[in-house]
């Protein structure tokens, strides 16, 4: 199986991630999330004269970060942060890997894929959620089983989360991507191509699953609920930021729990902010709630702990890395000894 690769800063990266974009070199999008940018003044938490920049993109578990920007929650925790929205998820990953933003929202398998070429190293500091149904393989009316996909055309963002989901489903049924006709497209374009009848199936995530289901007879063949723990969605920070400004990272993690409290206390306003950020009607947001399981502090503690199930990220990372080497997602297993840092979650408990 062959995957498209990216050439960046002299290093070959596998092309991955779920949540859209058309590759090329690392252009940094200036699209902001609509909130007033924080003042570029030194904050007590950061000790830096410029804001910390956190990248995020279109995924239901990451839309809540827009609440922090809208309600200026970072400033309340003593840190200047700019939330930078990326229309393309791959682009956010490339920008993070190049060291041009401080933190980014990423999945675990995609973070593993970018580890070898990441400038400064990447460290997981928070689990936002697990995908429990929102990553989907959607097919036309004629396809009723995974076996029916043989020889069919699938449009998907190659090497990223939904391609990972597809590979897991195929493996469970004794098949590989080589049994299909894969056409690589950014997720938004893939969903549109499927609706236009240019493919038999598509891999997508919200809000593009909503687009794909507009095709007559379209239905979900498999989704991430079939693979518990396989798609954790994370906040990943540059290792240098953590080493030099751990108080800043703690303030960012603490802000996430403020966001969650706001969501619980002000559900309608919170959902309106998130829907606006996602570019969807508030009522459409409702259909994505069950497919994204937001993690509590306790869930995070379990996820960061050693274990022998996919609920343990250290265990899951080893399983994922082995699978990704076997299936050709990555050429070799990277060093993951410093991938997880649970101190910020543990401090949240106190």
Question: Could you characterize the architecture of this molecule?
Answer:
This protein is of the alpha/beta class. The protein contains 14 helices and 13 strands. It has helices at 65-70, 73-76, 89-97, 108-114, 161-172, 187-195, 208-212, 239-244, 246-265, 267-278, 282-285, 297-304, 313-327, 343-349; strands at residues 5-8, 11-14, 52-56, 81-85, 103-107, 122-131, 136-139, 153-156, 181-184, 201-204, 219-223, 232-238, 292-294. A 6-stranded mixed β-sheet has the order 4-3-5-12-6-13, sandwiched between helices. Helix 4 crosses helix 13 (313-327). The N and C termini lie far apart (48 Å). 51% of the residues are buried. Residues 1-42 have low confidence and may be disordered.
- The value of Rg in angstroms is 19 Å
> Strand count, sense and closure of the main sheet?
6 strands, mixed
Helicity range: 25-40%
**What's the arrangement of strands in the largest beta sheet?**
4-3-5-12-6-13
Mean pLDDT: 86
Instruction: Give the H and E element order.
Output: EEEHHEHEHEEEHEHEHEEHHHHEHHH
The number of helical runs is: 14
Q: Which consecutive residue ranges, at least 5 long each, have pLDDT under 50?
A: 1-42
Compact description:
The protein has 350 residues and is an alpha/beta fold.
Question: Could you outline the blueprint of secondary structure elements for this entry?
Answer:
Elements: E1 5-8, E2 11-14, E3 52-56, H1 65-70, H2 73-76, E4 81-85, H3 89-97, E5 103-107, H4 108-114, E6 122-131, E7 136-139, E8 153-156, H5 161-172, E9 181-184, H6 187-195, E10 201-204, H7 208-212, E11 219-223, E12 232-238, H8 239-244, H9 246-265, H10 267-278, H11 282-285, E13 292-294, H12 297-304, H13 313-327, H14 343-349
Parallel strand pairs: 3-4, 3-5, 8-9, 8-10
Antiparallel strand pairs: 1-2, 5-12, 6-12, 6-13, 7-10, 7-11
Helix pairs in contact: 4-13, 9-10, 9-14
């Amino acid at each position: 199986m062959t995957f498209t690769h990216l050439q960046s800063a002299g290093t070959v990266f596998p092309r991955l991630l779920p949540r859209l974009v058309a590759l090329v070199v690392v252009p940094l999008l200036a699209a902001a999330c609509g909130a007033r940018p924080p003042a570029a003044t030194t904050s007590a938490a950061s000790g830096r004269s410029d804001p910390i920049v956190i990248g995020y993109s279109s995924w239901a578990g990451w839309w809540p970060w827009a609440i922090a920007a809208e309600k200026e929650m970072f400033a309340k925790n003593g840190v200047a942060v700019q939330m930078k929205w990326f229309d393309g998820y791959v682009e956010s990953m490339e920008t993070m890997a190049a060291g041009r933003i401080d933190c980014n929202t990423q999945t675990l398998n995609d973070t593993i894929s970018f580890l070898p070429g990441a400038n400064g190293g990447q460290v997981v500091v928070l689990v936002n959620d697990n995908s429990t149904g929102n990553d989907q393989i959607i097919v036309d009316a004629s396809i009723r089983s995974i076996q029916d996909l043989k020889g069919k055309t699938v449009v998907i963002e190659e090497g990223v989360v939904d391609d990972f989901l597809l590979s897991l489903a195929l493996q469970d049924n004794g098949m590989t991507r080589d049994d299909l006709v894969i056409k690589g497209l950014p997720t938004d374009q893939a969903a549109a191509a499927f609706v236009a009848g240019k493919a038999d199936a598509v891999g997508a995530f919200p809000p593009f699953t909503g687009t794909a289901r507009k095709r007559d007879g379209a239905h979900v063949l498999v989704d991430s609920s079939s693979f518990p723990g396989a798609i954790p969605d994370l906040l990943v920070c540059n290792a240098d930021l953590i080493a030099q400004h751990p108080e800043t990272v703690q303030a960012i993690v603490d802000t996430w729990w403020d966001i969650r409290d706001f969501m619980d206390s002000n559900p309608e306003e919170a959902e309106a902010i998130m829907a606006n950020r996602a570019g969807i009607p508030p009522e459409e947001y409702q259909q994505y709630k069950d497919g994204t399981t937001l993690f509590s502090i306790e869930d995070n503690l379990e996820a960061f702990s050693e274990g022998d199930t996919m609920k343990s990220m250290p265990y899951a990372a080893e399983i994922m890395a082995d699978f990704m080497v076997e299936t050709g997602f990555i050429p070799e297993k990277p060093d993951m000894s410093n991938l997880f840092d649970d101190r910020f979650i543990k401090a949240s408990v106190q």
